[in-house]
Amino acid sequence: MVISYTDLVIKPYFEKPNFKLYHANSIDLLADIPENSVDMIFADPPYLLSNGGFTVHAGKMVSVNKGEWDVSNGLKKDFEFQLTWIEACHRVLKHGGTIWISGTYHSIYQCGFALQVKHFHILNDIAWFKPNASPNLSCRFFTASHETLIWARKDKKAKHKFNYDAMKNGHWPDDFLKKPNLQMRSVWAVYPPKSPEKIHGKHPTQKPIDLLVRIIMASTDKGDVVLDPFAGSSTTGLAAMLNDREFIGIDLEKKYLDLSIKRYNDLKKSLV
Question: Which of 70, 130, 191, 254 could pair with 50 as two cysteines, CB 3.0-4.6 Å apart?
């Protein structure tokens, strides 16, 4: 299904066939997108953990601060934000459409509750295991080595897409937890973004393209519309492009949209 966005108030920041990026507040743009028009949404909302702390990256101590967009405004306002953008996503999804939300314990439980408040039907929670996770500096907690993915359907009574055979019989060489020709389970071993994925720079919460390829292959078909309301460096868009899906990405930060464009152009050249 090809949707016309010529009537949208906000015009694309970048537009190519089946690939559009918008510089906008996602809630504002979602309000302008036709109702029941999107097949799948992948969302990686702010983790809200930019609190002045530190973590380890590449063997060095670095700040966890990512920007003002990642600062918590307190429990009540944070939850209101989750409710607002999730409700906006609910409106644009088709009845059998699904949403994936990625997050850590700082935000994912709020998102899970907000999904239920807004009448989504939760299908699975996936543990994305990171085999080479950064160590814990304080040595007073378990080392955080996974993120949670929630997969939910808009309408409890509708039929959603799940490409069972592709998940069971697909080739997932880097996932040592996936056994050949057996059902895919809800724990996935996927390494963080590889060096070629960061050649132009990276987003602080950039996801590996292998993760998004799996999500898109699992829950959409060729030609489907995939939307990411917090697009960042557009890994979702590149995975959609690789699998012949239409992509709509939204982000507030021009520098990450510019990074997305560089990544798009590189991938486009490699596919010629």
Answer: 70
